[in-house]
Design brief:
Elements lengths: L21 H15 L7 E3 L6 E3 L45 E2 L8 H4 L1 E2 L3 H11 L10 E2 L5 E2 L35 E8 L2 H13 L4 E6 L7 H5 L9 E5 L4 H12 L7 E5 L1 H8 L1 E2 L3 H16 L8 E6 L1 H6 L3 H21 L4 H4 L3 E7 L3 H21 L11 E6 L11 H15 L4 E3 L12 H16 L14 H23 L3 H6 L2 H19 L39 E2 L15
Parallel strand pairs: 7-8, 7-15, 8-9, 9-10, 10-12, 12-13, 13-14, 14-15
Antiparallel strand pairs: 1-2, 3-4, 5-6, 11-16
Length: 591
């Protein structure tokens, strides 16, 4: 008898007829489903304790943990800043675990897989010692230019007894920001008023590229009608304009007030900062006391209008000190000392701090040191709130500080300019994460001369990318609560307040600029960084490491002896000092 060519399927008993019919197939599937629905026998598995084996038992439903209802709460202890240290509730701890075992599931079948030990700090320190061959973990502690220690590991620290010192966004001490965010910041690009026609063409290109603000710097006193010609075609309803007069602040304020009278509220604002202009340009046309007195009528007129319609603001330029080599704490101290000097002058002219405070903003440098920049902007608001409180400003809404971030010009190198695009992106990201309301991204080739159309487009697209693709502006204080950021913010604020006290004790900001003590202090800090660069403790990509092909040939103008916008001191200047230099990171070069 011939054998059938059809082969028996694997697993089919001998003698069972083959069947390809639909009913037969369905019946077989149903039979298999019925068999597999029963618990298998003879399967052995580890029990919950792991010390014996036995037959698997059907899992029992896990009991739900009881609601807190005021029982367990995060404990609070002493300390000025930090987040609360949370411990697992008692019902979640496995017996005999000593409080270390986190086990929120009590099912016999699943709990053993989810139970893990929460590592203690001493366990980590033991691992570090073994990795370092006996050295202490303290050898991993870093130090910033301000003398702040950077720990290798940050964990939850006890929060203050009265609650979180960082507070909530929009509330004192304003560490977490001034309030709600619309999803975007004011994208403000810088232009210098040289030739009105060329400047107007560049402004139109930026506006077509999506900027929302124009920062117009004066290099000389504006001629009649020159400011209007420069801003021709600018839609006041869509683009705001800030006129930075520098040493010619009175002329800038008068021209801005004349244009603002016929424009929508808040369209054009004159930003005045005589002390910052003295530090950057090295001269003032009027005596310092008379210059400060000139601020009173402009701000008094502004205070009589709506705040958003003010045609004059005091814009404290602290970025000039960072570009000269000042570390973050000293930059913040200069910002505080300058702001206090203005409040004193305005109060002497009859304008109380509570009236003047809403018309003051701070312009800070955003550097590629991401966490230093985030902490600097967060600390600036807390420090200014402390100053305003000391000045008797009771209304919290008037104690907030508007922060304007400008990418640090000194951080941009001429030897490898395209790396500056990455620096600008990191700096702008950090400024936005720190809560800056206005951000100016300088073109990557600004160290080589006046930027062109391509570099301006890349600069503004950095902000567009961060706002539209990362949605960074849709989150209030995205770094808030991070142990490292909160600790560094607190320590930076304390260091800045100490340096602010030293400047005040020496006579104030004006005295520090006139006698050169501040310039010498910044020079020492710059020399220390130059030594770190020369010794390899710090690196600048494209300069001290990973140079471009062909080596680092420094083009002409890569390092400026003075700020690039510093004009020659006119013979009729009333006050002159050596302007602070713009110090690019150069290893081993005397600062």
């Amino acid at each position: 008898m011939a054998r059938s060519s059809r082969r028996r399927p694997l697993g089919q008993p001998v003698g069972r007829p083959l069947c390809s019919g639909r009913r037969c197939v369905l019946g077989r599937v149903q039979a298999l489903a019925g068999e597999r629905s029963q618990p298998p026998t003879g399967i052995w598995t580890a029990s919950r304790t792991g010390s014996s084996v036995g037959p698997r038992t059907p899992p029992q439903p896990a009991p739900k943990p009881p609601p807190l209802r005021g029982g367990w709460q995060p404990p609070f202890a002493g300390g000025e800043f930090g987040a609360a240290r949370r411990q697992a509730p008692a019902h979640s701890r496995a017996p005999g675990g000593g409080g270390r075992t986190l086990d929120w599931v009590t099912s016999d079948g699943v709990a053993s897989l989810l139970r893990f030990d929460a590592p203690l700090r001493r366990d980590w320190e033991d691992l570090v010692r073994r990795s370092l061959r006996g050295d202490s973990p303290e050898t991993l502690v870093g130090r910033t230019a301000d003398g702040l220690d950077i720990q290798p590991l940050y964990t939850a620290a006890p929060a203050p007894a009265g609650g979180d010192a960082a507070g909530l966004p929009g509330l004192a001490s304003f560490i977490r920001g001034g309030g709600a965010r619309s999803g975007r910041w004011d994208l403000c690009q810088r232009h210098d008023l040289d030739d009105p026609a060329e400047t107007n063409a560049a402004i139109r290109e930026d506006i077509a590229g999506g900027v929302s603000g124009i920062w117009l710097r004066l290099r000389r006193p504006p001629a009649p009608g020159e400011l209007l010609a420069t801003l021709a075609g600018v839609n006041p309803a869509e683009t705001s304009v800030v006129v930075d007069g520098g040493p010619w602040l009175v002329a800038a304020a008068e021209a801005a007030a004349a244009l603002a009278a016929a424009a929508p509220p808040g369209w054009l604002v004159a930003a005045v900062d005589p002390l910052g202009a003295l530090a950057r340009c090295g001269f003032l046309l009027v005596d310092l006391e008379d210059t400060l007195a000139c601020l009173v009528p402009f701000l008094r007129a502004a205070s009589q209008r709506e705040e958003r319609a003010a045609a004059c603001r005091i814009s404290v330029d602290a970025a000039v000190y960072c570009d000269a080599g000042a570390p973050p704490a000293l930059e913040l101290a200069c910002m505080l000392a300058t702001g206090v000097a203005y409040l004193r002058a305005l109060e002497a002219g009859g304008l109380a701090p509570a009236q003047a405070a809403p018309y003051l903003e701070a312009r800070l440098a955003a550097t590629p040191d991401q966490f230093a920049t985030i902490s600097k902007f967060r600390a600036a608001r807390a420090l200014w709130d402390r100053v305003q409180t000391a000045c008797g400003v009771a209304d919290p809404e008037r104690r907030g500080l508007r922060c304007w971030a400008v990418t640090s010009e000194a951080a941009f190198v001429a030897q490898d300019p395209f790396v500056n695009l990455a620096r600008a992106t990191i700096a702008a990201f950090a400024a936005a994460a720190g809560g800056a309301e206005r951000i100016t991204v300088l073109p990557h080739d600004v160290a080589l001369g006046p930027p062109g159309e391509r570099s301006r487009r890349l600069a503004r697209n950095v902000s567009h990318l961060l706002a539209d693709e990362t949605h960074l502006g849709a989150v209030i204080d995205p770094a808030g609560g991070a142990w490292y950021v909160e600790d560094r913010t607190a320590r930076l604020a304390e260091a800045a307040w100490e340096r602010f006290g030293e400047i005040e004790a020496a006579g104030g900001m004006a005295s520090a600029l006139l006698d050169g003590s501040l310039a010498r202090r910044i020079q020492r800090a710059a020399e220390c960084r130059s030594e770190r660069l020369a010794g390899g403790a710090e690196h600048v990509v494209g300069v001290t490491c990973h140079p471009p092909p062909g080596g680092c040939s420094e083009p002409a103008g890569a390092t400026q002896a003075v700020q690039p916008d510093a004009a020659a001191s006119p013979p009729d200047a009333a006050v002159t000092v050596p302007p602070l230099p713009l110090r690019h990171p150069v290893p081993g070069e005397p600062a």
